[in-house]
Design brief:
It is globular and about 45 Å long. By secondary structure, it is an all-alpha fold. Helix 2 packs across helix 11, helix 3 packs antiparallel against helix 7 and helix 4 runs antiparallel to helix 13. The protein is built from 14 helices and no strands. The protein has one domain.
Length: about 300
């Protein structure tokens, strides 16, 4: 495995731990204030790392590039992240992970449309098996309150990952040339500012509840802070690094391993159901990933 492969797999693992913690925190903190909290923690971590490494906080980019990064932040963080949290509340961790099946094919298709990338036959077969495993594992479980929640949750999760795919690939040329830490810091800063502006315009009398709730609930910090470090900081950095050094489709297939990791963690840590369909789905996904790695 190359460094790009390792980054992509690491991102899936970090994201999986973050999702489990997000599921627990989501019982008490709604999606938008939860997203805002983890964005702030991630930005603090990134600024600290940049100071330690001596990275510059000023990068010479064109106005168009700054506008693209700004749009990427709004799409991928302000919109997609709360959608994922909302889907998680409706579906539970394991089924939400299966609903993420839109991610790998979305990345592959967008990589093809934007950059003309293609995969080998073995990688395509492996990717098909990964996505097939995701579809096979998706079913009604005890964690879902109604079929309406199932439908809305799957739609939210799938849409969020398509938006994330577009948002990260539309600026890939920038973070391939610039520091990943700086690009991530800028995106989170823009997302934080945008969410504050949204809250002051839409909920001027209820800012605390609608945006800053996570900061007023120290009883949730033992879940929220690790969730932010694993997800918005570590998973985000390694996710971007994977795309920096790999073709989009190959990185996405590795990222899709988060489905397997989340289902296993949800079973052991959250006691969510572990059905035969989920087992079959995991086997298919692991087989497909193995084919990608070995070819």
């Amino acid at each position: 495995m190359t460094m790009g492969d390792i980054y992509a797999v690491s991102s899936a693992l970090f994201w999986s731990f973050s999702v489990i913690l997000m599921r627990i925190a989501g019982y008490q903190i709604p999606p938008i204030p939860l997203t805002f909290f983890k964005n702030c923690i991630a930005l603090i971590c990134l600024v600290f790392v940049m100071l330690v490494l001596g990275k510059s906080f000023v990068v010479d980019l064109s106005l168009v590039d700054y506008l693209r990064l700004t749009l990427s932040a709004v799409m991928g963080i302000c919109f997609a992240d709360p959608m994922i949290a909302a889907a998680l509340n409706r579906l539970g961790a394991s089924l939400q992970a299966f609903a993420d099946c839109a991610y790998a094919p979305a990345i592959t298709c967008i990589g093809f449309l934007m950059f003309g990338e293609s995969l080998t036959h073995w990688e395509l077969i492996g990717g098909f098996l990964v996505v097939s495993g995701v579809f096979v594992g998706a079913t009604m479980t005890a964690e879902i309150k109604s079929s309406k929640d199932l439908m809305i949750g799957v739609l939210l999760a799938a849409s969020a990952h398509i938006i994330m795919a577009v948002s990260i690939l539309m600026v890939r040329d920038i973070y391939r040339e610039s520091s990943i830490f700086w690009v991530s810091s800028y995106r989170y800063l823009i997302a934080i500012v945008a969410m504050i502006l949204w809250a002051y315009i839409k909920h001027p009398q209820n800012i605390k509840e609608k945006l800053f709730l996570g900061f007023y609930r120290p009883d949730t910090w033992k879940m929220m802070i690790p969730m932010s470090i694993f997800g918005s900081f570590l998973a985000s950095i390694t996710w971007m690094a994977g795309f920096k050094y790999l073709e989009a489709g190959r990185a996405a297939i590795y990222n899709q391993l988060s489905t397997v990791f989340i289902i296993l963690l949800a079973y052991f840590l959250l006691k969510e159901q572990f059905t035969v369909r989920k087992v079959v789905g995991i086997v298919l996904a692991l087989t497909g990933t193995f084919m990608v790695v070995t070819h």
